[in-house]
Specification:
mainly alpha, about 525 residues, 2 strands, 2 domains, globular
Length: about 525
């Protein structure tokens, strides 16, 4: 039997290992092994009478784990028990971490600080590895900046970066903390680097969450300032920044829709080789201001492309897209005609980009915001013009939400049950003859909507209550460290099924339990 102090040491270093593993070792076996270790240590520590008394008296623990119990209840009326049991297994951190952390010895400020610094350090290490991939210092090839996140999905990674950024900001600017000059410099450099990397990662979700969270807390801080001049300048700054972004976005949209003038009557009908052009005047899809479906000679494209590349014209590129469409879009983006003359203008670099699945030359630059904004505008433009949104992250979500609301109408009060979400989505995709290809027929990508579908109106209300009420019960509604995480997590749920993957539910459960239940109340 280990002494109580030894169990606490195992518990504390288990938490640190879990924090470090989130950005670096998110494979199921690693993260699960750490959580199993924490649970086993909790059991071996014993003293269950005290622990159960804490659970009984600390209502927030019971309320939080009720979210997991709802998933258990949802198995009663599910049709797919296998998927239901799989979902219950994935959601185990919602049960294990609040109980283990909420009934263990509370951590003091120094211990929390050390734990968060370990977490921040692991995030920085992961960003350095990703940067090495981005700048070509490894043999890993990428066609999109978001592919540099090799340990975890780029959206989850962006959430971890946001938590690390605001943790560093707290350490750097909090008047309650004593800091050495070395600590101040380290925090400032780390903070700047993570901000730069968040931009390099090009995760719109992560950047949007960072901006919104920053505005929420800065606005709250500005209102407390006694210096009226400083308050005026900061409020002005708050107004100018969104306006500048809107101006940039407006300019990008205007640039996108600045299209070439076409005279249908006088348009050329034959190539230099006297082959007929194919023009589709009804299809208005554009690429860099040029109409995609004009000046096409497929005969010449096929013949000339197969001379230059080992990738067959009627085959697939590295992204499993039909290469002929990638080629047509790429030539259009360059302003070239889709014929032998256009093919002849391609350089070896262009050919490699097309083979890798890049359909517009501006995407060869993995650093920069405009290519990402352009991609989003293009996706919306294609969708509005009747194009297939398959593989397009923004416009797919429109289809997902439309399908989700149809499912909610049919299962409003009790939902579909824990394991039937994908079944119901698949059924509605088939029923409506969805234009989405089978690979992209996914779920809601909105955690709140997903809860409503699975557990209906009553289950959804209880889960929302279970997430929010403990914040006020534990008096964390004014605590910066907890609120910064909570705002980040809730915002992520608007655009992602954050709690439907092992990485996502572990991220949420760990920080939610740690910052809500695991801290000594004396240092709040």
């Amino acid at each position: 039997m280990l002494p109580k102090k030894s169990h606490f040491i195992i518990y504390y270093w288990g938490l640190i290992l879990l924090a470090v593993s989130l950005p670096l070792f998110t494979k199921l076996i690693v993260v699960s092994a750490v959580q199993i270790g924490l649970a086993v240590n909790w059991l071996l520590e014993g003293n269950f009478r005290r622990k159960f008394q804490i659970i009984k008296e600390r209502k927030s623990i019971l309320i939080i784990i009720s979210i997991y119990l709802i998933h258990i209840l949802g198995l009663i009326y599910t049709k797919d028990y296998q998927l239901g049991l799989s979902d219950v297994r994935i959601k185990l951190p919602l049960l294990v971490l609040p109980v283990v952390i909420g009934t263990s010895t509370a951590l003091d400020f120094k211990q929390i600080k050390i734990l968060l610094l370990f977490f921040v350090s692991s995030v920085i290490v992961s960003t350095l590895i990703s940067s090495a991939i981005l700048f070509g210092f490894t043999k890993i090839s990428i066609s999109d900046a978001r592919e540099i996140s090799i340990f975890i999905s780029h959206i989850r990674f962006a959430l971890l970066i946001c938590v690390a950024i605001f943790s560093l900001a707290y350490f750097l600017f909090s008047a309650e903390m004593e800091k050495t000059p070395f600590e101040k410099i380290s925090y400032a450099i780390s903070l700047c680097w993570l901000l730069i990397f968040l931009y390099l990662l090009q995760s719109f979700t992560g950047i949007a969450i960072f901006i919104i969270t920053s505005f929420v807390f800065l606005w709250h801080w500005i209102r407390k300032l006694d210096n009226l001049v400083l308050r005026f300048f900061l409020i002005t700054f708050f107004i100018i920044i969104p306006l500048l972004f809107l101006l940039y976005l407006t300019k990008s949209i205007s640039k996108f829709y600045s299209v070439e003038d076409i005279d249908i009557k006088s348009i050329e009908k034959y190539t230099k080789k006297e082959n007929p052009y194919w023009h589709d005047f009804e299809n208005k899809q554009i690429e860099n201001g040029n109409y995609i479906w004009l000046y096409i000679s497929e005969e010449e494209l096929c013949e000339e492309w197969n001379k230059l590349s080992d990738y067959d014209y009627y085959g697939k590129d590295d992204r499993d897209q039909e290469i002929k469409y990638t080629l047509i879009r790429y030539l259009t983006s360059k302003g070239y005609r889709k014929d032998a003359v256009g093919i002849a203008k391609l350089k070896q670099e262009d050919i490699k980009l097309i083979e890798s699945g890049i359909a517009n030359y501006i995407f060869k630059n993995n650093i920069g915001l405009y290519p990402r904004i352009y991609q989003l505008i293009w996706q919306i433009d294609v969708y509005l013009k009747g194009g297939n949104p398959s593989g397009h992250s923004i416009t797919q979500r429109i289809i997902y939400l439309k399908t989700a609301f149809q499912i909610i109408k049919e299962n409003f009060w009790l939902g579909t049950g824990t394991g039937d979400l994908q079944f119901e989505f698949d059924r509605h995709y088939e029923k409506t003859n969805s234009i989405l290809s089978e690979k992209w027929r996914l779920r809601a990508h909105n955690q709140f909507v997903t809860f409503f579908i699975a557990f209906g109106f009553f289950g959804f209300l209880w889960i929302m209550f279970s997430l929010v009420y403990p914040v006020f019960y534990e008096k964390k509604n004014k605590d910066f460290l907890f609120l910064m995480f909570f705002v980040i997590a809730l915002l992520s749920m608007l655009n992602e099924d954050t709690l439907e993957t092992h990485a996502g539910v572990t991220f949420f459960s760990f920080f939610y339990a740690l910052l809500l239940l695991g801290r000594d109340k004396r240092w709040f």
